[in-house]
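Here's what a typical entry looks like (Aminotransferase class I/II-fold pyridoxal phosphate-dependent enzyme):
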Amino acid sequence: MAEFLPYGRQSVSEEDIEAVAAVLRTDWLTTGPEVDRFEAGLAEHAGGTPAVAVTSGTAALHVAYAAAGIGPGDEVVTSPMTFVATASTAALHGAKVVFADVDPETGLLDVEAARAAMTSRTKVLAAVDYAGHPAAMDELREVAGEALLLEDAAHSIGASWQGRPVGSMADLTTFSFFPTKNLTTAEGGAVVTPSPELLERARGFRNHGLVRDKARQRFPDEGPWHQEVHEFGLNYRLPDVLCALGSNQLKRLPSFVKRRAEIHARYTAALSDVDGVRTPVVRPGAEPVWHLYPLRVLDGRRRALFEHLRGEGIGVQVNYIPAYWHPVFEDQGYRRGLCPNAERFYAEELSLPMFPDLRDEDVDRVITAIRAFF
């Protein structure tokens, strides 16, 4: 049996390791200069939009919704074709999650479905850049109206839509730096926003809601040690050690993007003529960063192909079960059938191995196994 081939894997270089080790030799392990450096680097890749580094992509969503001020009585419209955190972090703030269906070709939030889901109670419209393909942010901006527009860009740092980089188009954009993502800090994430008010609220929530600025304190004369909490927050601070890894990974992001595009093109060229599958669609104006290669397996054969490839030592995955299928949402009254396009997309989706260190011979091994199955 050949070596097991995972569907995703981090790419960590000796330079990355040395960057982390260098921080371990300093006085700062957390909340120090490497955080500032990483946030500045992220901002450069997000069209100059200021960034707040946090402990995970899930934390980034939780922080973003906190910055938006959502709570009981508010609604958040989002896609079900996403990891559950896009919805659960809104629910944790007390908001009602309203799922709108997806485009049947791309799995991205459908603009007209989103429009139909909007009400006077909608506080945030949250789009998801599924698989690394940017959502139609220009159209969704118009749909959002008075609501805040959030882009869940866990898959898409380095991508662009209509010539604009991801991170520069929404009121709030969230990133994830999990090991399988486009760059990694082991665990980590970030919120970027052009709004000074939202930025301040995000930074506050990331750090327990602590207020150290005397000009904003209620009791500024208490003493030089004094700090206050005006709104509850959490500890979502990303340590300097991990930010150092992130800064070095940012330098390599263009090469990661290029290699992911090459792998995507190799799969598509070899599988487009296979009866029984459909290769991913790219919308005009999109420059994706392919976090996933979402092959569509037709005629109810997705599970059979999944098991066949796993039997061949190829680590395919399925992304994602529609978010409202999770029992935690079912127990709140959400029912299957709510978003038919998303459910059909899920029933067919199979993520093929996709990471920068994947060799051409590894890609060809996957292709051969798929073609043999059919």
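The mean pLDDT is 97.

More examples are in the samples folder.
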